[in-house]
Amino acid sequence: AQSVTQPDIHITVSEGASLELRCNYSYGATPYLFWYVQSPGQGLQLLLKYFSGDTLVQGIKGFEAEFKRSQSSFNLRKPSVHWSDAAEYFCAVGYFSTASKLTFGTGTRLQVTL
Amino acid sequence: DADVTQTPRNRITKTGKRIMLECSQTKGHDRMYWYRQDPGLGLRLIYYSFDVKDINKGEISDGYSVSRQAQAKFSLSLESAIPNQTALYFCATSVGQAQETQYFGPGTRLLVL
User: For a Cys staple, B105 with which of A63, A114, B6, B89, CB 3.0–4.6 Å?
Assistant: First the structure.
């Protein structure tokens, strides 16, 4: 069964510092990978996704992620964090064989200190 | 106006009561989903529907039922609510391919006493 691991429950960074949120998936087939962000009291918004092609994908709000098949990872990065980036971030995986069913990670809550 | 709307946004109910959560979308998508979010558990799929005549159970469907009244409407029912169904519930929609983005509603916060 497909699964997603986000090993960091909570991360705190200073404004202006770089950020990397980790995501690992399990399963043998080529995955479709997503990062969503949930701001307090809001639904989930897509930051970026990977399903084929260039393994480095750019998203909204200055985020990027790199698909590394050898490491089964899809880590999210941002070179300089803004206070407004404080939110919860979810990695999700889907596969062609499971249609559009996504499996979500447990989330990483990002706190930004000024 | 929001593309995916959920009603109510907040609801308090008592154990044993029947409750319905509603989802409407104006995106014209065929596929709709219901998830629940619990702290530390992320989002888990309850039910999903690929079109009006196609409804499927997700990983945690026990205690829930759904109705796809139209392409744009997908309702989630708790026939007899219990306290461990207290959670944040999200509806989502997508076009039709596995790699397509799912668009989420704002969520319904449900408290079962």
Answer: B6
Q: Are strands A108-113 and A10-14 parallel, antiparallel or unpaired?
A: parallel
Asked if A76 and A105 count as a contact pair (C-beta separation under 8 A), the reply is no
A100–B94: do the CB atoms touch at under 8 Å? yes
A34, B4: Cβ pair inside 8 Å?
Answer: no
- Could you tell me where the DSSP H helices lie in chain A? none
Q: Chain B closest CA to A105's CA: distance in Å?
A: 6
A42, A46, A104 member nearest B43 (Cβ): A104
Residue of B nearest to A94 (CA): B98
pLDDT digits (tens, 9 = 90+) for B73-98: 999 999 999 999 999 999 999 987 76
d(CA B58, CA B2): 26
In angstroms, what separates the C-alpha of B18 from chain A's closest C-alpha?
A: 25
Within 8 A of A60 by CB-CB distance, chain B residues are none
Distance CA A11, CA A111 (A): 6
Stretch B53-68: mean pLDDT: 95
| pLDDT the model gives residue A99 | 67
Cis before B8? omega within 30: yes
| CB of B78 closer than 8 Å to CB of B62 | no
Q: Does any CB of chain A come closer than 8 Å to the CB of residue B93?
A: no
Among partner residues A36, A100, A107, which is closest to B97 by beta-carbon distance? Answer: A100
Predicted local distance difference test score (pLDDT) of residue A95: 80
Whether A101 shows a pLDDT value over 90: the answer reads no
